[in-house]
Amino acid sequence: xxxxxxxxxxxxxxxxxxxxxxxxxxxxxxxxxxxxxxxxxxxxxxxxxxxxxxxxxxxxxxxxxxxxxxxxxxxxxxxxxxxxxxxxxxxxxxxxxxxxxxxxxxxxxxxxxxxxxxxxx
Length: 121
Fold this sequence. Notes:
Chloramphenicol Acetyltransferase; 3 helices; alpha+beta; 121 residues
């Protein structure tokens, strides 16, 4: 059985859920500027030493699988905003090889790429 399935009182699986008041406000603001990244939360960190990227990707994927809210999207259904929990389709971490970038320029390039990613809605 899917541990993140949601059921209503009639024993039927629910697909859509109403928005909370806070979510309704976010939805309204999004309608004004759908390309805004104002509500993105970004953070960078420097990791020294070897990083097992496979283990990191699997760990993030497991967090996404366990927490419905991370997979929740807002959609318009019959003119009303609702939330829908998307299936866990597997997380793939984006990797960029900066090995060809001169060492003295790598950090600036990494920050530039991270900044561009953070601006995506």
